[in-house]
Design goal:
Radius of gyration: 18 Å
CATH architecture: Roll
Shape: globular
Helix content: 40-55%
Number of strands: 6
CATH topology: C8orf32 fold
CATH class: Alpha Beta
Low-confidence stretches: 75-100, 218-227
Strand order of the largest sheet: 5-4-3-6
Number of domains: 1
Distance between the termini: 37 Å
Mean pLDDT: 81
Structural class: alpha+beta
Number of helices: 9
């Protein structure tokens, strides 16, 4: 589903679930905002390590609390009551054409604990934005299937790094989940059991959106432009 379609689906759910969504993630955001410097971190890199730790906390939230919504991924299994949260075609008047789209929005993973690649990505991007970190969505192909994941600018080396929440969840509970966290494009393409392709144009769009911002933002959440 294209980025535009995801935003359309999110707009339908916003009126119904935004308040509960914000309540659900408030504890995570408070925990992240209260993170402190580790005394073992080098003085000249402590801001970077704190920034990276915040991203890792978001990533770990999903790998610890969420599952893949395989019902959504298999069209023959899709039914109005399968995306949880008691949602159906008639639920609070949500239009039929949108009621099955919950897993591709930020609401499915947070409120239901289930989602698909783009839903996880949209939730990750939103939570990161709420703590002042700018991320963007990249769309491409992963192991022959349409796929979406997150990219962010690394302030240390200036490279765009990839974070694939969906693939991390498929390896949840193992050290291998971190194989999909903060990868360079070269590292992404070298993963032994994964084949990422057809994302170059989308990646360039994401890079353009990320340009002009300092990845390490003020503590008040405002993004600051590079001087």
């Amino acid at each position: 589903m294209a980025f535009k379609k995801i935003k359309e689906a999110e707009s339908v759910y916003q009126d119904y679930f935004e308040s509960e969504y914000n309540t659900k993630i408030s504890e995570l955001i408070d925990e992240i905002n209260n993170l402190e410097y580790n005394l073992e971190w080098p003085e000249d890199k402590k801001d970077y390590y704190l920034w990276r730790t915040k991203l890792a906390k978001i990533f770990q939230y999903f790998t610890s609390n969420c599952e893949i919504d395989y019902d959504y991924q298999e069209p023959e299994n899709r039914a109005p009551n399968k995306l949880s949260y008691s949602i159906s075609y008639e639920y609070n008047g949500i239009p039929k054409e949108h009621s099955l789209a919950q897993s591709v929005t930020k609401y499915g993973p947070i409120l239901c604990g289930k989602g698909v690649c783009k839903g996880f990505s949209m939730a990750f991007i939103d939570i990161a934005a709420k703590i002042g970190i700018r991320c963007e969505l990249v769309e491409g192909v992963h192991n022959s299937y349409g796929h979406g994941w997150v990219v962010v600018n690394d302030p240390i080396d200036g490279l765009t790094k990839h974070i694939d929440v969906y693939s991390g969840i498929t390896k949840k509970g193992t050290v291998n989940q971190w194989d999909y966290f903060m990868l360079t494009t070269e590292e992404l393409l070298e993963l032994p059991n994964d084949n990422y392709s057809n994302f170059e144009e989308s990646l360039q769009v994401a890079k353009n959106r990320l340009s002009g911002f300092n990845p390490i933002s003020r503590t008040d959440g405002q993004r600051i432009k590079n001087r």
